[in-house]
Amino acid sequence: DTGVSQDPRHKITKRGQNVTFRCDPISEHNRLYWYRQTLGQGPEFLTYFQNEAQLEKSRLLSDRFSAERPKGSFSTLEIQRTEQGDSAMYLCASSFPAGHNEQFFGPGTRLTVL
Amino acid sequence: RKEVEQDPGPFNVPEGATVAFNCTYSNSASQSFFWYRQDCRKEPKLLMSVYSSGNEDGRFTAQLNRASQYISLLIRDSKLSDSATYLCVSLRRGYSTLTFGKGTMLLVSP
Prior knowledge:
The structure holds two protein chains of two kinds. By secondary structure, chain A is mainly beta. Chain A contains no helices and eleven strands. In chain A, the strands form two sheets. In chain A, strands 2, 4, 5, 6, 9, 10 and 11 form a seven-stranded mixed sheet that branches. A four-stranded antiparallel sheet of chain A has the order 1-3-8-7, with no helix packed on it. By secondary structure, chain B is an all-beta fold. Chain B has strands at residues 4-6, 11-14, 19-25, 30-38, 44-50, 55-57, 60-65, 70-75, 84-92, 98-100, 104-109. In chain B, a hairpin with a 2-residue loop joins strand 6 (55-57) and strand 7 (60-65). The chains are: A mainly beta, B mainly beta.
């Protein structure tokens, strides 16, 4: 399968714990995005990388959130001191900067904070 | 006001029906538009890009009206497998991140 992959698919954690998610984009795509989706809402943008550079961060991305893409390939999203409001589906997408910049999504990591 | 607005539905239609969804956007700097399909508890999947002249892909037709700032999606001859949430998406000029509507749920019944 050469699509976007994410790991883990599900994560249950207790409030206050740290969690880290991984995203592997489509191999020739140099742009990588993180979105968050809660029930009944569309995905909301969190942050975006072009190669290893983090070019944009949403106001939704509080100080407890950090994302990296150290070698311009896979990316990690870490949430420190999780809160119940962090419970959501975390989606990763990738794209190649041509045409209409169509973005392709991974299966997501569903986070539940107890 | 949300940047991209959609009627959440659900739209309940019988198999074979034609159904249309509209979506409005408020940011005139929006440059590109897309329709994504999302099945329950799955990731969004690109259904089609929306071009200024309108475009068709099989049973699906997308239209863009920049003057009125709305996008439409028409599905002809609905199939049971078309049941899903359809997300209207915009991309602002000079930006690379997508803005999603809340989605419109479609339920096609036998």
